[in-house]
Amino acid sequence: MVEIRPIQEHQIEQAKQVVTSVCLDVWQDILTEEDVKCYDSMSDIEQMRSHYFGNGGMFLVLVDNERVVGTGGIRKLNDEICELKRMWFLKAYRGQGWGWKMAQMLFDFARQVGYQKVRLDLVNEERQPQALKLYRRLSFYPIERYNDSPCNIFMEKFLESVQE
Questions:
Q1: CB-based burial of residue 24 (10 Å sphere; 0-12 exposed, 13-18 middle, 19+ buried)?
Q2: pLDDT tier at 102 (50, 70, 90 boundaries)?
Q3: For 40, phi and psi rounded to 5 degrees?
Q4: How far is CA 126 from CA 26, 66, 137, in A?
Q5: How much is the pLDDT for 164?
Q6: Could you tell me if 103 and 87 are in contact, meaning their C-beta atoms sit under 8 angstroms apart?
């Protein structure tokens, strides 16, 4: 059975492997697995309790028969703005609506916490066309750079208030 749920401690290594696998897909002609590990320590996933859960955030995994096949998180930027992080899915799980569903769950969480906006960054349109298409469908719009990442696309979305 495939389902989305909060990450558990024993799933951290699997989650990191999903991120590594998708990074290798995105950068297949440029980066090796060693490059990915040098570039991104994934310390936020290693320390997910303090980085996400203990700091106004959430980290979800897409699980297929207890195997992590996708990830996504919400990270606090400030009291009103959060960031969509680590939305990565193995190739076999893309284009099936899992990204949309996980994003909606993360947005619901963000609204309940009180965030008013969600931001994200993407490498570029050429390397992540499917992700960009999804984010546009989710009502994200372009904004100016808000961090020092090597990404070239920065987007934001207003969160509608929780229905009373």
A1: middle
A2: very high
A3: -130, 105
A4: 9, 33, 18
A5: 45
A6: yes
**Which H or E run includes 89?**
strand 81-89
Task: Cite the DSSP H helix spans in the chain.
Answer: 12-26, 33-39, 43-46, 48-51, 98-113, 129-137
146's tokens: 């808000």
Cα Rg for the chain, rounded, in angstroms?
Answer: 15
**Which burial class, exposed, middle or buried, applies to 60 when counting CB atoms under 10 A from its CB (0-12, 13-18, 19+)?**
buried
Per-residue model confidence as pLDDT tens digits over 118-154: 999 998 888 788 899 999 999 999 999 999 988 899 9
Judged by DSSP in three states, 28 sits in coil
How many CB atoms neighbour CB 92 within 10 A? 9
CA-wise closest residue to 108 among 162, 54, 49, 48: 162
Asked if 123 and 73 count as a contact pair (C-beta separation under 8 A), the reply is no
- Report the side by side order of strands in the sheet with 141-142: 2-6, 58-64, 67-76, 81-89, 117-122, 153-158, 141-142
**Cβ proximity of 159 and 126 under 8 Å:** no
Cα 53 to its chain centre, rounded Å, is 14
Backbone angles phi, psi at 142, to 5 degrees: -70, 145
